[in-house]
Amino acid sequence: MPKAKITAVGCYVPPRVLSNHDLEKMVETNDQWIVERTGIRERHIADENVATSDMAIAAAKCALAQRGIEASTLDAIIVCTVTPDMLFPSTACLVQNALGARGAWGFDLIAACSGFVYGTTTGAALVAAGTHRKVLVIGSDTMSRILDYTDRATCILFGDGAGAVLIEPAEDGEDVGFIDFLGEVDGSGGDFLKMPAGGSRKPASHETVDQRMHYVHQEGQQVFKYAVRKMYEAGRDLLARNGLTGADVAVMIPHQANRRIIEAAADRLGLPSEKVIVNIDRYGNTTAGTIPLAIRDAIDQGKLKKGDLALLAAVGAGYTVGASLWRWAY
């Protein structure tokens, strides 16, 4: 069976920037408090007429252009998101139509902040099975649409953005591509990070709107402790299962939820700061968009090159946990 490799990366963030100083005028907070506790200085916010599919399409076009191929050659499109344009049709259907990817099937994948790790693992499995040759995996979220900007505990954390990767078969004898994945869910933590209404249990009503139940609700300390522990454990166990240690990793590309979470997990893995990609200061938490944005930055900074071992790791609402190992292909 062929090995799957990532052959292109494309990203998009909306041009509007919301800085910590802007937030100081909106809610009781300040720049120093936000930076010290989260590492965030600014985030990008989509205009009212821009939805998750629009950002996903822009990121996809960048990835396709980088690879020099047409959308019509795609076999599948996986869109990882918790902020779909609508519950149905899926955002993948909207992206497929807009791109003109007539030969592709697809679906949305909901795993919150772990979505992109889950999506790329799924895409790699489709390619490795020999049934697909070009799978486009997109992480795209418009988190600003589900934030309560009177809640200083959550509105400071998130931004909008998207990233896409193309997954294709490696050439015969080529020692690059997907190596392994470790995933876990712990549904007992579901109440600690959620959007309570909008689904079948609590459909939209005057009551759910008045009680602000269509926004992100989070118990920060619970999420923080779990994320630090599980991002470390997933990375540790995945490396050990493959006979590797932190010393073998060229770069760790973690989900960007909080700088302190990233630094604590990396320190436990024995990874120095120069091996860990952190760009949360410029984007905030874009949920499924954080890891592809960080991959692009790692490449641009010369920290991710052909043959390098990359460790991707994320923890998200659910709880969801995921880590994957890739030998970079270009």
Structure description:
This protein is α/β, with parallel strands linked by helices. It has two domains: about 5-170, Thiolase/Chalcone synthase (Peroxisomal Thiolase, Chain A, domain 1), CATH 3.40.47; about 175-325, Thiolase/Chalcone synthase (Peroxisomal Thiolase, Chain A, domain 1, 3-Layer(aba) Sandwich). About 35% of the residues lie in helices and about 25% in strands. The protein has eleven helices and 13 strands. The chain has helices at about 20-25, 30-40, 50-65, 90-100, 115-130, 150-155, 205-210, 220-240, 260-270, 280-285, 290-300, and strands at about 5-10, 15-20, 40-45, 75-80, 105-110, 135-140, 160-170, 175-185, 195, 215-220, 250-255, 310-315, 320-325. The protein has a five-stranded mixed β-sheet with strand order 1-7-6-4-5, with helices on both faces. A hairpin with a 3-residue loop joins β12 (about 310-315) and β13 (about 320-325). The protein is globular. It starts with a strand and ends with a strand. The mean pLDDT is about 95.
Shape: globular
CATH class of the largest domain: Alpha Beta
Specify Rg, calculated over alpha carbons: 19 Å
First CA to last CA: what distance?
Answer: 21 Å
Class based on secondary structure composition and strand pairing:
alpha/beta
Low-confidence stretches: none
Outline of this structure?
This protein has about 325 residues and is α/β, with parallel strands linked by helices.
Offer a few descriptive terms.
330 residues; 13 strands; single chain; 33% helix; four-stranded mixed β-sheet; 23% strand; globular; 11 helices; 2 domains; Peroxisomal Thiolase, Chain A, domain 1; alpha/beta
